[in-house]
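ok here's NlpC/P60 family protein:
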Amino acid sequence: MSTMARASLLTLAALLSACASHTPPPPPVVTPVVFSTAPEEISPIAADVLFRAFSLVGTPYRWGGNTPDSGFDCSGLIKYVYNDMAGISLPRTTREMIVMRAQNVGKDKLQTGDLLFFATNGGSQVSHAGIYVGEGRFVHAPATGGTVKLDSLSKAYWQKAYLNAKRVLPTEQHLARLP
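and the structure:
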């Protein structure tokens, strides 16, 4: 058999064996988690908080950071966004935020702008927080080496670590009563 015939035969065998390989398994089916049963009407203040939080996605994480120039940790991000867009001065740490006087909110009643609290170190001690942006998602500054990002509450990690939510923004009913 000639060299050309052998090369052709080997090429044909390689091509046929590639076609005979196993097909990749289908992607896993992800069941969406429903956090609210009705479409949410967003107040103008909540919309401002939402857009500001989104604008900071990609900002580097820095422990103790509280500005876009220096970077953010989770509580620094929250404090900055609420002060900048809503004129609300919040405590500096997650431990102070979770005990502040504000309305506690059930997971099924979350609204854009609510604060989310997590125990990422296990147990029930708050160690992380984020800003709920709607549709089961939140913006947060996760960890050293990372950046501010959009994440999903439907992830098993966040469901397990979830502690509580608080509403610090005025509701539409409250805004209607203001002079």
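+1. The helical segments are 3-19, 44-55, 74-86, 94-99, 156-161, 172-177.
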